[in-house]
Each structure stands twice: as C-alpha cells, then as structure tokens.
Amino acid sequence: MIKKCDVVVIGGGPAGMAAALAADKKGAKVLLVERDGRLGGILNQCIHAGFGLHYFGEELTGPEYAHRFVLEVGKTDIEVLLNTMVLSLSDDRKLTALSPEFGLVHIEAGAVVLAMGCRERTAGAIALAGTRPAGIYTAGMAQKMCNVEGYLVGKRVVILGSGDIGLIMARRMTLEGAKVERVIELMPYSSGLKRNIVQCLEDFGIPIDYSHTVTRVVGKPRMEGLYYAPVGADRKPVLSEEKFIECDCLLLSVGLIPENDLLTDTSVEIASVTSGAVVDERRMTSVKGVFSCGNVLHVHDLVDNVSHEAETAGAAAADYAFGKYSPSAVRYRVNAGKGVRYALPQLLNAGEGEAEIFYRVDNVYRNPKIVVESGGKTLCSKKRPVLAPGEMEKVTLNLTSVTGDVTLRLEM
Amino acid sequence: MSYDVMVVGGGIVGCAVADRLARLDLSVILLERDDDVASYATRANSGIVHAGYDCEPGTAKARFNVRGNAMMWNLAEELDVPCRKCGSLVVAPEEGLEGLEELKRKADSNGVVTEILDREGTLKKEPNVSDNVAYALYAPEAGVISPYQLAIALADRAVLNGAEVVTEAEVTAISRENNLWRAHTPKGTFDAKYVVNCAGPEAAAVNGFVGEEVYETEYRRGDYFVLDNTEGKNVSTVIFPLPTAAGKGILVAPTADGNVIYGPTSVPTYDGDTAVTAEALDEIRRSVPLTYARPAFNKCIRIYCGVRTVIGHDFIIRKSDRAENFVMACGICSPGLTSAPAIAEYIEELLVSCGMERRPKADAVTVMPRKLRLESLSEERLNTLVKENPAWGKIVCRCEKVTEAEIVEAIHSPVPATTVDAVKRRVRAGMGRCQGGFCATRVMEIISRETGMPLDEIRKGIGHSEIAVLAVKEADYD
Ligand SMILES: Cc1cc2nc3c(=O)[nH]c(=O)nc-3n(C[C@H](O)[C@H](O)[C@H](O)COP(=O)(O)OP(=O)(O)OC[C@H]3O[C@@H](n4cnc5c(N)ncnc54)[C@H](O)[C@@H]3O)c2cc1C
Ligand SMILES: Cc1cc2nc3c(=O)[nH]c(=O)nc-3n(C[C@H](O)[C@H](O)[C@H](O)COP(=O)(O)OP(=O)(O)OC[C@H]3O[C@@H](n4cnc5c(N)ncnc54)[C@H](O)[C@@H]3O)c2cc1C
Predict the structure, then answer these.
(1) Which residues line ligand 2 (CB under 6 A)?
(2) B374-474 CATH, one of 3.40.50.1370, 2.40.420.20, 3.30.200.20, 1.10.10.1100
C-alpha cells in the first residue's frame, strides 16, 4: 500500500501530536504514525501531576495533558495510523511502515517530522557488575508496570541515578507501600529537576547519596541486595568503603537516549552530545525536509517545551512541503562554550525574527552569568542565581543581531 | 512412566543426545533442572564453532572438536539456526610467530586446515586487527553459531520426533527398580532402561547417584561484553590472541545474530557463580586493544558470564563399568559446544554397545520448518501473512523488530517458552539495545494471554523470578 502526504510525523507522543497539529493548521495533509495502540507516548504512563504549567497554565497529569492533544487531533483531518511502526526512512523522504491492518505501508511525504522519543539507558549499557536477577529494571519499565499494569516490581527498592523518572518512581513506589531505601547518584549533583528532588525525595525522607555508585548486585534468581560505595575524583568507586543494602529491586534512572535508530539509512547529522540531530532554529536537520523535535532531538525535562518545539517543527515541515521554507545561504553555528554542555538549535539561518536557544550546563553553578556572543558582539548577558544540569534553560535572540557564529558560555 | 532412554541435563550435549536418539525407534525423556533447556554453560559462552587447531593431538577434545565442526554447518542448516562460517584468526605480534607455528603443527596433526598469514594477509581477512599484529593463524573452518538457539532447536526437533522434555525436573537421586533406573525429581519419578548423564556442572554428582566416579570438578568463570549490533560491521572474523595455559584468551567475535562480543576471562570460581566482576570487566578492557583496533566499550548493551566445568585436561565420555546401562559426558568444557554433535554421535555408539537397539524411526523429522523472520520476508509474503494473522504486522520488540506472531509461536513451540528469558532466547525480543525496557511488559502480557497464567506469575527465568511482586494498592480492592 502506498500513502502520499505533505507531512508525515513519526511518533504520536506529545511532540508528534503538536507537530501534526501545527502542520495541519498550515493546511498540510498530515499522516501521524504511532507504533503503540494509542496516542500519547510516554505521557500515558506518567500519571503524576506536573505537566502543562507553562503550556496550559494549569497542572495536569501526563494522560490529561496528552488527552487535550488527542482531542485536538480528533477534530482535524490528520490521518492517524496506530499500531504502526516505521521501519525505514530515506533521505528522499520515503518511508516504510508495518501495520497489522495494511501490512507493509510505503509512505511518500513532502516533509518528515521525527518525533520518536527516547529510550532509557540500561544496566547493560552501564556494565553493572554482579548477578543479573529479577529485580533490576529501568525506572520507566517499573513505571509502566505500576501505572499501566498495576503491579509493583519490588518491595525494598534502591534507585541508581537521579533522573526525573527515578525520582518520580521513588515517590510512586513509596505511596504504593514499597520501601525506597535510597537514591544513589554518581555525580555530585542530581540530573533531575530540583522540584522532583524536593517533592519526591525530601518530602518522603528518602536519602540521596551523591558521588556514590552501585558496585555490584547480588542474588539469583531474585535480587537480594547490592553493594555501593563512594566514588573518588576519577568517579571510580572506593572499594574499601563499600557498603551492603538488602533490597529486592534496583531501578535505573541513569540517562535517556534519543531513539534515532531509524536514521541509519539517512545522512542526518547527529550531534554527539545530545545523540539527536543537528538542527536549525526551525528544527530542520541536515537533510532537507526532515525535521526533528521532542525527546528524539534532545531530552527535555518539561513536556511544555516539547510541545512548543514540536509546533515549530511541524509548521516548518508544512512550509517546506509547500516550498515556502528553504535554509538561507548564510547559516551560523551555535557553539557551547565554557560551562555549557550543549546548545540547541546548533544552526541559525541569517534572517529576521526571534529564535530561542535552549541549553544545558555541565555542572552546578551558583551566581553564574550566561553570556551569548556573536560576531564579536555580546548579544546578551544575564546573571542567574543557580544553573544545574538537570534543568534545561533558554535564551531568546533577535536574529537580526546575529552576524556570525554564536557562542554560549558561562562567566563566574 | 517408563522410557528406553533418559537424558539428564538439557545443555547442548543433552539436547544433541536426545535429538539423535529421538530419531531412532526409542522412547526418550530429557530431564532438565532449570525452566528451559540451554540454561547453564550452553547459554553463556562464546558461541564459537572452533576449527580444532589448539586441542592437544590425540585427546577426546581434538577428536570431537574436529568431527563436531564438520557436522555443525549441515546441522545448523537442518535446524534453521543462525550461524556464520566466518573463519578465525589467532593474531600475534612480531615475536609471536613461533607460537603460531607450534599451533599450526597441532592443527596439522589434528587434520585441521590452517594457514599462517603475514600482516597484509591478516588485514585482508580482518581490517581491524590492532597495529602490533604481525602474523595470524587463519582457520577457514571456524565460525560462530547461536549456542542456545542450537540447543533449543535440537530439543524442539527431539520433541517433534516424540521425545519428552521436562523442565524444572532436577534429578536429585537415582535408584534401581525392576532392572530400570529411576530418577527422582520435583516433578515425580521417571524410569528408564538407559541413562545418559549430561548434567554439565553436576555431572560428577549425578555419577555419584549410581555409584560411579565422583570426579573432582573445577569451575572457571568467563565474563563478556555484548556490543550493539551497529558494531557488527566492524568485526568480520573471530580474533583470538595466542593461547596460554589459562585457555584461548580474550577474543573479539561477531555473534551469529549480528552483535559483537568481547571476552571471556578465565577465573576460578564455584558452581553457579555467574556474577560478573568489575575486575573481570577491567581485564577485558585492557586485553581487547591488544588484538583489535576499534574497541567500542561505549557501545556495550549487556554483560554476561558463563561457567566452565573442568575435570582434568580432557572430556570424559564413556559408559560406566560399575553401573549397568549408564553413559556419561563429564567435564565438557570448551570446545564442548562445537563437539556436541560428535559427542552425541559417539554416545549413541556407546548405548548400542550396551545393547540398545538401533532402528531408525520411519518418518523422523530432519529438516525443521523454517522460522519466518520479518527481515527475510518478501513484501508480498509479509502482506499475505498479515492478512491471515494481523499479529504479523505488530512489532513488539522495537530494537530487534520482533512481531507478536513470532512471540506467540515461541510460546507454543515444541519446548514451550513460558518465561520472559525463554522467549528472548528464541526470538530475540529484549536482546537489543533497550534490553526489554519497552517490550518486556508486552511480552509478559502475551505470555499471560497465551498460557492463561496471571501476570504476576510470569517469571523472568528460573525459580522465583516473578517480575510483578505486589499488586498496586492491593488492599484497596477488597
Ligand atoms: C517518566 C517521565 C516523567 C516525566 N515527568 C514530567 C513532568 O512531571 N512534567 C513535565 O512537564 N514533563 C515530564 N516529562 C517529560 C515529557 O513528558 C517528555 O519530555 C515528553 O513526553 C517527550 O515527548 P515525545 O513526544 O518527544 O516522546 P514520547 O512521549 O516518548 O513519544 C514518542 C512516541 O513515538 C513512538 N514511536 C517511536 N518510534 C516509532 C516508530 N519507528 N514508528 C512509529 N512510532 C514510533 C513511540 O511509541 C511514542 O509513542 C517526563 C518524562 C518521562 C519519561
Ligand atoms: C565462558 C565459556 C566460553 C565457552 N566458549 C565456547 C566456544 O566458543 N565454543 C565451544 O565449542 N565451547 C565453548 N564453551 C564450552 C561450552 O559452552 C560447553 O562445553 C557446553 O555448553 C557444555 O554443554 P553441556 O550440555 O555439557 O553443559 P551445560 O550447558 O552446563 O548443561 C548442563 C545442564 O544440565 C542441567 N542439570 C545439572 N544438574 C542436573 C540435574 N541433577 N538434573 C537435571 N538437570 C541437571 C543444568 O541445568 C544444565 O542445563 C564455553 C564455555 C564457557 C563457560
């Protein structure tokens, strides 16, 4: 079967839905492809509140937030293919997808929006030593088991890593009657949001050990406990200070990785820091007509930012399909300078209007100044009380003032 | 129930024996301690079909390795098991030439084809050997196979040919009743005329049940890294360092399914110790760059560990001179996987010499039905399949692209897969880079639906490894 459309959106999470809606608003014929049985993506399992404060000005749960977009999609002519997984993508915007209803579907699109989300780093990826028993899961899998299937995966829990999903699960499992012993974090700071540290750990008296790591897991076939130790300056564990905790479950919240496996047959340039595509301010990748947004582009902590970013990408994709967008001849690089881990978009088209630059810092900084420079001029310089790697930050630039490559850096 | 032959242990040797005997006019039962066949050494090894150049000439290892290698490729074809005859290289620096020449002499007396290559010749076989490699011993007959899939396919074929496979049936004692052997297991007792002891790590103990020699057994751990399948293109052959007294050394190898492994270590341990240690991982991190120029430890998706069962210096495969109709395969360490088909062939002879009648079964299955894999289906075929069964259009495991139809088939295969790990070993759901993060819950739902087991009884693998341990707010529901 062959389907033709102006814009195809891959992934029906918050990013995919917002992108599809934005493209639809521009009059594009949109196809939204989702491998799961329903739209909503990861939000369907995030039943806690805390979504939408910025976008809707109210605090919603994940499913509620998603549902608002699902309703909007329902009011449009966007064609939605559920249970359909995109298997391949090429530079000339030809896709194949597999669906239980139609078999193999060939899609030809004027523009493509990537919105496939991300996956979690696993115990294997961090080469976690010890046994490999029942009881070791990624926090997201534990979340799905708890919130979708209705089961806890452990009664005495330790969490490795302080990513947001881990923090949310610390609270969730505590509320469900499990004992969360502690959170163990390799770095001297959390990779999650400050508000989650407060609301999910501190409010429940769950300790967090910074600069510590799990050294090995014991027990077979079920986990019986684990050893952990402080780490030295080289982040290697100090084994003489190893301690044991009895527990039947270890949840991992050690990082999210954009799910860009689909891009293997394309020439989309990937940024090594984000593991997502290199994009311009309209979220177009290095392959013309292919756009990227949401967690597949870079990992966001707030879904509100995902929705905004996806609207940018979706609108640009429609413009591209109608021949109304092509990158300008002059493009500037956006570089991450001192203290900045990455900045996105990585490219800016010379032109007019405003562009938001998102960035993350590489450590916790108190009273730093974020400085943005371009073509020898300082475009902005703002003092901030504190910047932490767990929180995505942004600066807004006036494109007319950008006259050369842009650098974001911190000044102490 | 009474059988002609009872096989104790469902590793590669036990499965190969059961498969051979099931094609004769015999009733065969295989008793396995764990939840699935291929649960011990057969599940966690290097998966290399060794050529046989390094075995001491004249040993059982040399004999069965060379014969096993010769049988393997056809067997894999009959059973539709992933394998690749990709050859192997033992690489050495300038000063290692002598070591290679000595290996070549062993190869010659074992009748194994090998060739010593200079650096240029080596690079033609494997462009990514490290800079210090000056020579290599090339063995074209070597290759890789999926060891657990091979064992599972053998067990499946045995079942199709009438054998019974009973899992979670650890033989805890063997007694003599009415001229038959009686095995005692948690699943009841089973009687048989002949017993074949293929109990791997416990083979010596099982010998003891019938008054045979309880061989002193050593165990040696081997740890590994598994790399993402994007690394597969960088490794075209098996790369060994020069062997030492400790063994074949730490290798870099493609796997039959397209990943890459680095390992194994060789560390003395106790039976069942499959915990990976940080020291072992560090040893591998240090060793790999000595032979291979593109180590990619950051592409690791999994680590694992297997345990070798070592008795003296050679395999012990013989019939008992103390217990009637009792045959043993003890100390089957490396190259046990490669040797298994040949060991099974020999065990059949041993049983015949005990008086077992050998009549081929009239219509025994030899060629197993081809397993359909999404990647190898033509578009037309795929569309027909989806039309007949929409589960063919539903991908459950994103990373390895496994459909619901394949998972359902695995659950109902001749040796059924009823745990998450058993499904994973059959169809690779959960073997990819997300390690089941997305699909494990889906697989659990499908197992539950297909078997009628409630979700909280679905296990990861052996023993009490249930994944769901407590219903959410259980108390609120009643
Ligand atoms: C556990 C958790 C807790 C969070 N907590 C908060 C919070 O409290 N507040 C907040 O504001 N934000 C929170 N966030 C962040 C926010 O929800 C996410 O950033 C956002 O959901 C990402 O949206 P997305 O559309 O990019 O990805 P996803 O929601 O992951 O959607 C991607 C979709 O693409 C589909 N897909 C992938 N590959 C394919 C393919 N090949 N073919 C077809 N479909 C495909 C997937 O099935 C999925 O539905 C949280 C995130 C997580 C994971
Ligand atoms: C690290 C490592 C790397 C290796 N690499 C290779 C290689 O590359 N190539 C190669 O050819 N060989 C290799 N080998 C060797 C090969 O894996 C083994 O020789 C082979 O798997 C042994 O098979 P088996 O059937 O004898 O034992 P196992 O696979 O150990 O099976 C024995 C079975 O018996 C069961 N059992 C035990 N006791 C009882 C009981 N009382 N009742 C019922 N069941 C019982 C166990 O549960 C187990 O399933 C390697 C081994 C290791 C450990």
Answers:
(1) B 8-14, 31-34, 39-42, 45-48, 50, 170-171, 198-202, 206, 222, 264, 306-308, 332-338
(2) 1.10.10.1100
